Every structure is written in structure tokens, then in C-alpha cells.
Amino acid sequence: MHKGATTDRPRGTARRQGHGHTSTRPGVPIEKENIPFVDSDHDDQWVGDGHLTAAISSRSTVDQDDDTMTESQENLARAYATRHVGPSLAERRMQEKLTVSIEFNSADGDLIEEAKDRATELKVIDERARGLRRNSISLPSLNVNELEALRLEQERQEGSGILETDSGSDSSSEGSTEGTPETPTTPAKLKPMLHFNDDSSSDEENKPRGKNLFRTKRRSSIAPLPALRLNDKEMMSNDFDTHSVLSNQASITSVNSLASLLKEKMQNVPAIIRKKKRETKDYKLRVFVGMLFLIIVFLVGYAYVMYNQKLLAKSYFETIKFHKKTRNFRLLDGKGGEMLTGMLGTTLNIEQPYNCLPKDLKDDGSVCYEWNSKARLYMNLAKSPAPDIKCYSFQWESLLADLYPTDCFDASEDRGFWYGGGLTNGIEYILGRTVIPEGPFVTGDINMHQWGNALKRYFLNSRGVAIQVDETSPLYVSVNTGPGKRLCLQGRNDKFAFVNRQTPFPELKYTVCSGPDMKTLHNGLMQKSLWDGLTERDNDVIKSLLREPVWQIPASKQEDLTETAIYNYTESIIALGYLRLGHVLVNEFWQRTIGDFRLDPERFPTLDETVNILHRRGFRVSFMIQPFISTESSNFREAVAKKLLIYERESERSIPALTRYKSTTSAGVLDVTNNASIPWLAEQLKKISETVEIDSYFVDFGTAFNIPRYYQCAQTLVNPDEYKNYFMERFEGTLSIFGVSSAITVPRPPAFLSLPPVNSSWSGLQSIIPTMLSYGIIGFPFLMPGPVGGDFVLPTQQLKKMYSYYSFELPPLPDKELYIRWLQLATFLPVLRFTHLPSEYRDDTVTAIAKELTEIRQRVLVLLERFSSIAMDEGLPIIRPLWMLDSTDVNCFSINDEFSIGDGMIVAPVLEKGETVREVYLPQGVWKDGIDESLRKGSRWIHNYHVPQNKVAYFIKMPDNTRF
């Protein structure tokens, strides 16, 4: 109880409680008496006559009529006893929630009593004392008369009638102990007032004891309290009294305590339910968070889709600047710098375009503009080959037959250097330095046409921009023909190259890609693995072409090529002694007429025996074939009868279309798009193999201009160059092809692309490196140069006009210096090819130089084989321009008289007559001089580098950690 607690009720005052029970004054026998306890909203008080009002709760009589206080009631009494001053409003609210009601049921004798602020009289209880709970306030087992006697005795001893309590004790602490009441002297018949625990600590025994006879020593564990709410947070009894259950279980001292414990457990049921409710709330929170997460994922996905739809417009605003009215075009890099500039639709008038009608829009989300029923332009994002490369597609659709969509881009060198396309008429490695009139982009003879024997619709700029034109577009290309230096692309149908219209009106479709630098962009756009379908035998052919020379039998005329000439030529090769035996190439004169596909029996009576001898000596024999059939051939009539030839347009395949090929003035062309022609040609070649064991074939396609002008095939060709693709696709699994004369796509390995025939002159020698570099850039990694010394002598004084069908005679023995410099260059190229042997000069100097170059060739082979494997994997060329070593070095952009073998060696041959010094540039790194083996630092020019006639300048790349 609270120290000095008093009550304002008169001593002995009783009130009616329960169902039909009455209370009487003290001393009067009654059936039952109430022991009052005090509500936390009022103070305990003593009345004037010394009667004690104590906060004691009555318990239900389960089996006996003895009264004990429950633990919840005791806790409320303790809370009240600790008050020294009047309670605050928050405390009063708290105490209202802590008020414990005692229910009395008339059926089972339970007493329903709520805590009040006034005392009630004790009811009659059994004289037997019952065991008390250890952590509860036990009531003395006294009757009313005994209690009255104790009261009177207490008044006599104390006088004041007030029990003193220890004001310094803190009843709120679990470990504190209340004052121990002193037991007064009473008659022997009286029972002990209180039961104490025997295991009290010594500290508790040493504390001052109070005189309250109705208080017992407090235990450290208390009964679980009902659920409390503190600071708007609901707390369970188990949250702040974790030991109460164990303590209660350990403190059972009587049978009645079991009922008390059961009631306490029942009191905890609401708390458990509320706790489960709280857990339920947590579960709902988790469900809410999960649903919110799903909503966020949906919104992010939706935003991503919308972002992709809007990405094109964003890209055009941030990367591409296009003025719709003037059609000025600018491609910007990440820093806002101009990478590509030009003008689109140069053939249109300056006028404002309109957005395309819904029926004209594409399903891919392209941006579309239309110029007043003249043309439409579609712009869109294109698939990028690598994350750091961005590509944009452009497509013009002309709405008029005579309107040719044309886009032009700045080709001046201050806007970067342009490469690609193919070999130009001027043998220029950089496109901006030549003039190419507007013409069809098809293969031709560089002596009279604008482009060479190999083309790709691929143009590369040194600022890291590339243009790829679609194969189906009727492409015309011009360079530097209009105002200013410009590279122009035009979609245009004509009566020969693009006579087969793919669309009703001309179209131009291309893709512009940009990358961080030219090297990264180029590597990403090149064709990848070439290993698909490659057999082990094909791989052996590639290695043999790298290691062994190609010996082309010299024969300018049909009568020059005989069985004896082949035998004698191979004997001379063996007599050299320092060059490997390799491939013997026999040109088309092995037939009597082109298209016979049979050996001439007069010139080759026992060629099968000769070929067997060559095989035993270690040679490989290759024949040159072509899809042309001379009108003088016996096969021509059969081919016409079986409709195996390309026929005249609109002739219903009844009239074969004729053309000229080399020395043949009239010839038909085998239609390889006709399914019947493939087995026919295969059967003809099989007959040759039955007579002579042929190892491989070299296919001479000629050029696009060797196709009949008014051609028509069984299947429509986009352009004449597509014929080559059909042939390779149909025969690559039937024939072993080791070389082709022309191509617009990379031939299937082991086929090497042959460089076009060159004149036996210093200008012819100077054209080899630009041709190798140009073809390597557009995607042809395996290249076969012409023979050392040149292919022919150009009779410029005899002819007023060049014609591609002319067959020129082989050159006589070239000048010795030219031959030596040519041989020095050829030593570092993938294939070493001969017509004239070094022994023909009968000069010890030439022989000594040739032997030294043979030793160098053995060292070069290591690099050639290494980078040929890389070419198979990545499509990169073996012979590379210097900017592929360092695309940030502007000095490397325009060098066309040096090249590198992969990134392991740089070669700088002498290409001028009578020169023994030259300028050499080395990219970044450390390089070892091949002549004197000194180390040289890169990123600089070597001026007046001395190269004697018997030496060639080459530099080997050293490891990056090399130091001087």
C-alpha cells in the first residue's frame, strides 16, 4: 500500500455489492465480508477511529470459501501504493486501463467486484489458512472476530492506528522488497498472519521492515499484466515481463493457485489475439509492398517501351540534326562535334515537307516525311552490331519515275578521310582525292571503268562514321563531280546494270553508323566468323597458299601453252632449289576453245602422265575455268538446245545473249540461276577429273561488263554482279575453288580474291599496296596479288581506246630493278605468285637477293598464319592500313605506301625507280628495325631512311613493356 494512505469513508461503513449480498457494521456476524482495495484514481486514507482500509481483492471460491488476491489485483494495489502525490491525467488514463474487475457468478459463487475508491467489509471466510502464491499478497486465514481482535491490539500498541511503510521503497522495481510486517503477540489460537518465502535474499532481510500486517514480501517476478497502450503503442504483457510465466509456474503453493494461474492464462488470451492481429497487420503490409513492387515493375516496363518508341525522336534531336525544309543533315558525336555533314534529297526543290499519311507509315516506327507527292523519306534506328556503335537507317522512295533520290556528304579532308567502295580508276586509296563521274556501282576494268574487280557497298570515314548501302538499291556513286568535294549516293534504274527494277520507282536505302573511333567502328561492322562449312582440306589449302608460291604458266597465246611448256617450267622451279614447290596454275588455254571443258588433244596428248609426275614431285595442279562458252565451242549448240545460257531480254529464252570475253569475240554465258545448268557443268568438269587429276580450280568471272548487255536469267538478278554470288553458292560444295577473279561478297574460304591484272611498270607496282588496303578495308581478308613483274604490258601507243575484252600479251622479262623491288614487296604479301622466275635473269645479284628474301619469307609466314586465323574469326584483313594500329594518329590516315601484317610488322618497300632512301612512319610503340635490328620509338617519322637495292624496310613490333 501507499505510505500514509487514508480513506474518507467512516470506519465500518459497508455498501451493497454483488447479487443480493448485504454488508453490516464490524462486530456484527455476517455471511461474507468484502476486503476493499483502492482504485488508482483515488488515495488511500485512514479514518479517524484508526480503522485500516486496505486494497485487497477477493478471489473466486472454486472448491473452498477461502479468499486470496489474484496477481493482477496485487499489481494494481502495488501501483497504487507507490503513489506519493495525486495522479496526473495521463496516469489516471493509464490506471483506468489497469483496473481489474472481479466477477462474481451466482451459479458458481464467484464474486464480481470492481476496484473502488472506498473500502467494503470483509465477508466470512473459512478459518483454514490457504497457501499463498509466492509473488502474490497472501491474506491471513482469520475469521472476523480474530481480525477485530488484531485490530484492537494494533490500536493499543500504536495509538495512532496508522501503519508505517517504507517511503524509500520503489514498488515499481521488480527486485525491490516491501517492509516486512511485525507479528504482534496474540493468543495461541491465532494463525500466523503472513507466509514468507524462505528463499528471500539476505539483502531483502536486512532492509527495514514495516509494520503492515497485511503485506508480504514482494518477489522479483510478477504476474503478466493485461495489454497496455503506452505512447499510442500497444504493448503485450509478455513484451515487458518475459519472466512472469516461468515465475508463476515456479511459485505455485496451493491448489487454489492453479485456478489463479488458469485465470492469468485466460487474461493473456486477448493479448495473444491482439499480437496475432498485429502480425496480421504485418502480413498485410507485406502484401501491400509486394503489390506496390509489381506496380512499379509494370510502370518501369511500360516506361521502357514508351522510351524505345520515343528514342528515335530523341536521337534525331540529340545526335542527328535534320532541317526538313533545306534537308541539311548533321551527325553529331557525344560532345556535340560534327562527325558527318551533308544534304539529303539534292534532286528535290527547297520546300516544306509534310508528315506521311497513316497508310504510308511503316510498322517499325520510322519517322516519315513526304515532299508533295514527289518522294518520301523514312528515318529510323537500326540494329547496332555492338553497344558502342549507333546506327540509323534512311530510305528514300521516289514517287516519280524520273526522280532519282540523291544524298551527298562532305568529302573534304577537313571533314575526315573517306575509304572503301573498292579500287577506283585512279588507284586512289582515299576517295576524296579522286574524281569519279556518276555511274553504276558495279565491277569493271580499272583501265576503262570507274571501279575495279571487287566492290562492297561500304564507305568508311576517319571520324568514326560508316555508310552501308542496301544490296537491293540501284546504286549510282559519284565523287567530287558537283560543287565542292562530295560523296554522293543515288538510287537510279538504267537499261543495263539496274534494268531489273525491284520497285516501281527508284529507291535508295542505306544505314549510317557511328562509333567512338574508326577502328572500333570498322571492327564491329566487319563480317565475323568465316569458319562455317570449312573442312580440314580447305584449311590445308589456305595454309599451302600462304607457305607455297603459285606458279602461273606463262602463256599469252593458245599455242604457247603446251604439255612440254608445263613440264619445262616445273623443271626450272625445281632447279631454283630455294623456293618451295606449290600450285601450278594453267590458264584457260588448256581448252581448244573456251567452253569446251575438254583438254586439247593436240597440245596435251599425255597430260595425265605429266600431272602424275608433278604430283609425285610435290606440285598441286590447278586449272582456270570460266562460265563463258564460245560460239565456236561444240558445247554451245548443246547449251542453246537445253536452254542453259543467259538469253536475250524479252526473247522467251529462245535467243542466247552474247558477249565478249578476253580473246573470245563471241560467247554465251552459262545461266547458273537455271537449275539445269549446274549439273551440266558439274558433269563436264567431272570428265576432266577422270582424265587428269586436278587439285583445284581458279574461277574467272570477268566483270559486270562481261555479262551481256540485254541479259535475262531464269531468276531475276538485282545487278550483273549478283551472278558471281549465285555461282559460288551453287558450286562451293562441288568444286574445290582456291581463287576467284572478281567478287562483291567474301568468297567462301579457301578461295582467295585475286587482284586485278596490272601493267608491268613502276606505276603497276605502286598500285598494289593501295589495292590491297582498299580491298582489305571493304572486307576481303584473303587476297592474291598478281605475278611478280606484272601481268601484261599495256600497249597504249597501239590502242586509241581500251576495251575490257582485249587479251594482252605477257610482259617480257621486266627490268631487273623493277623485278627486285616487286619481289621484295611480294615477299610480305599473303600469296607469292610468279610467271617469270628469278633464274631467268642469270644474275648472281638477283639470285642472292631472292635467297635472302626466301629466308625473310619464313619469318613472315609465322605472322601470316597467325593473322589468317584472326581473319577467319573476325573478318579483319591480314594486310592492314596503319590506322588500324592507331586510329587516333592522324599521320596514319593518308599513308598508302606502307602496310602492316596484322599488328605485328610494318613494311615500307621502295616503289620508285632508282630510289635508295624513303620516308618511313612508325605508329605508337617500340619497333625493331629488320635491317640493322635497332630499336626505334614509334609515333614519329624516320626521314631519309636508307634502303639499298638488296634490302627492304620492315619493322617488327616489340612488346609493350620494351624499354630502351
Automatic annotation (TrEMBL):
Transmembrane stretches, start-end: 285-307
Bias-annotated ranges (Basic and acidic residues): 1-11, 30-44
Positions of the Glycosyl hydrolase family 31 C-terminal domain: 875-957
InterPro entries: Alpha-glycosidase_related (IPR050985), GH (IPR017853), Glyco_hydro_31_C (IPR048395), Glyco_hydro_31_TIM (IPR000322), Glyco_hydro_b (IPR013780)
Keywords assigned: Glycosidase, Hydrolase, Membrane, Signal, Transmembrane, Transmembrane helix
Annotated spans, Disordered: 1-44, 156-216
Ranges where the Glycoside hydrolase family 31 TIM barrel domain occurs: 588-717, 759-861
Domain of life (superkingdom): Eukaryota
GO molecular-function term, one example from the UniProt record: hydrolase activity, hydrolyzing O-glycosyl compounds
Family: Belongs to the glycosyl hydrolase 31 family.
Listed name of the protein: Glycoside hydrolase family 31 N-terminal domain-containing protein
Organism of this sequence: Anopheles dirus
